[in-house]
Structure formats: structure tokens, C-alpha cells
Write a structure and sequence with these properties.
The complex is a heterodimer of chains A (249) and B (313). Chain A has helices at residues 37-51, 68-78, 94-108, 127-135, 188-194, 235-245, and strands spanning 2-7, 9-11, 33-35, 57-64, 82-87, 112-116, 138-149, 152-159, 162-169, 172-176, 199-202, 215-221, 230-231. By secondary structure, chain A is an alpha/beta fold. Classes of the chains: A alpha/beta (249), B alpha/beta (313).
Chain lengths: 249, 313
Amino acid sequence: MKILVPVKRVVDYNVKVRVKADGSGVETANVKMSMNPFDEIAVEEAVRLKEKGVAEEVVVVSMGVSQCQETIRTALAMGGDRGILVETDDELEPLAVAKMLKGLAEKESPDMVILGKQAIDDDANQTGQMFAALMGWGQGTFASEVDIQDGSIQVTREIDGGAETVKLKLPAVVTTDLRLNEPRYAKLPNIMKAKKKQLDTLSPADLGVDTTPRLKTVKVAEPPKRQGGIKVADVAELVDKLKNEAKVI
Amino acid sequence: MTILVVAEHDNAHLASATLGTVTAAKAIGGDVHVLVAGKDCGPVAEAAAKVDGVAKVLVADAPHYEHGLAEDLASLVAGMAGDYGHLLAPATTFGKNFMPRVAALLDVAQVSDITSVESEDTFTRPIYAGNAMATVQSTDGIKVITVRPTAFEPAAAEGGSAAVESVEASEHSGVADFVSQELTKSDRPELTSAKIVVSGGRGMGSGENFKILEEVADKLNAALGASRAAVDAGFVPNDYQVGQTGKIVAPDLYIAVGISGAIQHLAGMEGSKVIVAINKDEEAPIFEVADYGLVADLFQAVPEFSKELDKVL
């Protein structure tokens, strides 16, 4: 089985982003960038399937600026076999990413595509579902457990009221949720080895995809800031305030 | 211009998230139709027809719609899209699952998780866990949108009298099937629609210790929530999680116990009307957003709080 794992380079989880003064977006210059945390979980899941002997090859894909190579190398250090970068300086919306993934899936013929459920920058939560639709494949989104069977997979999904299990024909798409696994840290020897692994570069035009955005960002603003309130001295004062001042109990 | 809202339901009841989505549709302007796709979902269609502001309810009744599989719902909704300018669904695990498929089938962008409507083609949505608000304008002919239900007042569940029509079901996809469902059993109100939420964080120390929060929650008829740290530590199931990657809540009262207030957690509860924080670390960022902060050991403060409630409730 071949697994394709798309990964996104995003502003690091721990960075507190700042809105640009001109309202055109958030400040990304000189900010630490990392792999989207949900994509790390996707890489880990694919590598584990390879270690179990279920998968033969794990191909890592990223799309965007040339520095996305670093994100791919990180995934290769975790255990991915080779990488593909679709390089572009254009801003990419999920629909364009899904179309380029379709182009790659047609070249690579993977049995499964595993990716994060959402990226922590645009919080869109769209790419996996869009790609699955374009391919006509089944999808197991927000996965907490993946069980491979003969020609199909069972995916247990996190849903609002609990959990749900679906059975998908292969090839299929899985998007990862937090509890699927705990990603490993790449070890130094593996980081060195990853530098020598194959990494091919394509352009959106090679895949025949028009990446023109469909959405226009009118402005990006700071959220309304919530004002902190007071500290109460003890529990009795707290209950009194809730009852008589805020009137919420 | 006509707007289609895809209803979330369990074949018996209309989910409250649908009502906030109807309000967002009304803010866009135009006739609002509601699609109820399910199996033996007549009671849901009746409920949807009574929702204030709904002009028409469309029912697609077929066995493969019973569990809202994304593959089947998306082909149904995409097939109906020609009659509409906007397609809306709540940004819950239900809507997030199938709506991007609809957008892809129609070759249009999706605008996810909107919190306000600026005009018929322009919407505001949080990005970076709510650290920034992006206002975006859609250039597509059909706008596919998911709506953060807690950002819109729920439409009145009574007062409407919409016509109910049935629509033809689409074919079953054949690539995905429902196997089973395990819903968390609870007599407490649902997290995203509860008036009061009591949440615990890493400071709770164990799942066992959540019992003291349960006692308070029961007295207040509150839902129980948790931070990601508490979920990651295995104290409580994932569906308790409030935050960027969990549920977004906006109750009248949110009580955060032993929660430090990471930005990802704040993203899920900052819309609450009144926030209470109980934490022994007075430097915890949660106090910066709390209306009432109590610096105290939660293991003393929570049982005491519970006793004090008995006096006033």
C-alpha cells in the first residue's frame, strides 16, 4: 500500500500572531514556522502503518513557497520515504490545494491519503473533504482510530456527541484528530538521513491547476478584546456576585 | 435570492445548531429553505417547518441519509444547488464533514465558520484560533458557507408555517458506509447549547476528580467541558473539549476550573457572557478574560462553591 501525506507549513503553534497594521493579514515575516500539528499526526500514522508492514511507501507532499522543503524534510526525518513540493509563491486556498492533490494522486495512485483535519492558520477544515469529493473517494474525517482491513478501512471519528465508525472502500481519505496518535520527535541520525531522501519539485502548471483565489480578503482585524474583570476574595463573594450582580445563577 | 440551510438532526429532533444557521441565512436576506435529509425524519421536517423565518422545508427521506454520511449528503446538496445563491450548514462536526465536499463538487470555495454576515457576499470569520478576524468576499456564483451557530441568536423554534415538500434522494455513494455510533450518555444539557458550562483543566489532576465538577454542574443544570490538556491527559473524553480544535461554546456563564487559559482554549469560550476562573496560580492568563476570578486551591474552593450554591438556588 502506498500512502500520500500532504503537510502544510504554518506559523508555529506557540507563536502569538499579530495582525498587520494595514489590516491586510497577519505578520508572518521573521516568525517561527513549523509543520501543522494535525499533519504531524498524519505523518506519524502513515509511518506506523509502514512499520507494521501494512504500507510499503509513504510519500510526503507540500505546496507553497520553497521553504516548505523544510517541512517535507521534517516529515522525511519522521519516517517518510520521499517528498514532492509543488512550489508557488501564490496564496493557496483549500480548493486549489485539493485540485493539485488530485493531480498528484493521479500520478502516484496512492491507496490512502492521510492529512490533518484543519490547519491552525486559516482554520478552514476543508482540504481533505474537497480532495475526497474531487476523487469520488470515501472520507473518514476527524479520525481517532484507523483499522485497515482487506480492501477497506474502518475509521472511528470524533463527532460532537461522541464517536462514530464508518467503513470506507480503498482508496480513501483520512483526516486526523488529536487522539489518533502522539507524533514522534525526529532523531538526529534520521534528520541527517532525511537530507539525502528524494525530493522532487513541481509547479501548479505541471498539474494543470489554476490557483487564482476565489475569496478576496477585505480586511484582517484584531478580535474585540475581552476586558478582564475583578478578583473576588472568597467563594461566598463569588456566589453573591453571580447571583446579584451578573444574575446568571 | 433563495438560501438553502442544511438541517442537522438525529431523525427525531432538529439540532439547536440549525436555528443559529437559519438566523445567519436571514441576515444574508432572501427566502430561506431548509433541507432535512434523513431516514423516517418526518418529525424533524415538522419541527423545521415551524421555525420562524423558514419559507419551505425540503425532505429527502432514504435509508442512506440516516447517519448523515458526507458522501451521500454532498451529492444530494450539490444536485440541488442550482436553485440557490447560498448553501449554509452549521460549523459542527456534521457540517464541517460534508460541506467542503459540496463546495468541491460545485467548484467553488467554502467560507468556513462565519461569525457575522457583512453583506450577501462578504462574511467575517476567525483565523489563527480567533487571534485575528478575517473579512472575506466570495467571488463565486454559489456561496458555500458553514456558520458558527453560537455566534448567531437561535431563530425562534415556533411561529413559522412553512410548506413541506419532498425531494428525490440521490444514489448511495457505495464508497462509504455507516458501521456504528457511540454517543456519550449524559443527562446534562449539550455542551454547545447549555446556558451554563463548568469546565476542568489539567489542574483537576485526574478523571476521578471531575466528580466535584459534576456535582456543581448538576446543581446548575450545566454542561461539563474540559481543556485540551485535560483531554490529552486522559481525564475525560474528547467530546468534552472546548477550544480551537474542540467545541466553540458561548453560554451565559462559563466556569473554568484549574484551566490556565491557553489561547487555544480561550478561542473556544471567549464568547461567553460571564466567565468565572478558579485557579491557584494568580498569574494564569485565564484571569485576563475572567469577569470574576478566584485565586484558590480548586479542591477546597469547588466543594465550598457547591455548598454555597445550595444556599442561593
